[in-house]
Amino acid sequence: MRYRALGRTGIQVSEIGMGCEGLVNKSPAQVREFVDLMEASGVTCIDLYTPDPAVRSSLGQALRGRRDRFVLQVHLCSVWKDGQYMRTRNIEEVRAAFEDQLNRLETDHVEIGMIHYVDSMEDWRQIKEGPVMQYALELKEAGTIGCIGLSSHNPQAAQAAVDSGLIDVLMFSINP
């Protein structure tokens, strides 16, 4: 496996990471097998956008005793509501979901707090000027997240976020 510094963060990550959508509907034993294989293969970065509580709990169990070997990229604004994934900007929901995520992952910190799915300039303005960014900055100041990230499919919103200097990591999805 090859590793590289993740932009200006200085965090070393494997060039191949793992998204957790494939862990949905998997047993805790199956999730542990995935994590075992990741560790054996040198994969260090885990992107956990899914708010599914079962996935988060199973991953937390699988990381016991080896949490320090992985870089966790978790998403703010991705919540579980009425048995399904929802994107929200409601700060109370964002806070509750993030705290639940830390509990389920059995950790007190994550390396990357990714502001989830910012796909328009209006959405970026609301994030930048509203309580979500303030919350992310508070988490970073407290050391609960190491750096602030943002995920987007929109080039203008992504560029504006980068230009703001507020984010440390950009996850730009390209879906052919």
List the helices and strands and how they pair.
Blueprint: E1 3-5, E2 12-14, E3 17-19, H1 28-41, E4 45-48, H2 53-63, E5 71-76, E6 78-81, E7 84-87, H3 91-105, E8 110-115, H4 121-129, H5 131-142, E9 145-152, H6 155-164, E10 169-172
Total count of strands: 10
- Structural class label: alpha/beta
Q: What does the oligomeric state look like here?
A: single chain
Helices and strands, in order, run as: EEEHEHEEEHEHHEHE
Poorly predicted runs:
none
Number of helices: 6
- The helix content is 40-55%
Largest sheet: 6 strands, parallel
Kindly provide the radius of gyration, computed on alpha-carbon positions and rounded to a whole number of angstroms. Answer: 15 Å
Q: Strand arrangement, largest sheet? A: 3-4-5-8-9-10
Strand content: 25-35%
Q: Which geometry do the CA atoms define?
A: globular
Average pLDDT rating: 95
Spatial separation of the terminal alpha carbons: 26 Å
Summarize the structure.
The protein has 176 residues and is of the alpha/beta class. The protein has six helices and ten strands. The strands form three sheets. It has a six-stranded parallel sheet, with helices on one face. A two-stranded antiparallel ribbon has the order 1-2.
Provide a descriptive summary of the structure in words.
This protein is an alpha/beta fold. The chain is built from 6 helices and 10 strands. Strand 1 and strand 2 form a beta hairpin. The mean pLDDT is 95.
Notable traits:
6-stranded parallel sheet; 26% strand; alpha/beta; 176 residues; two-stranded antiparallel ribbon
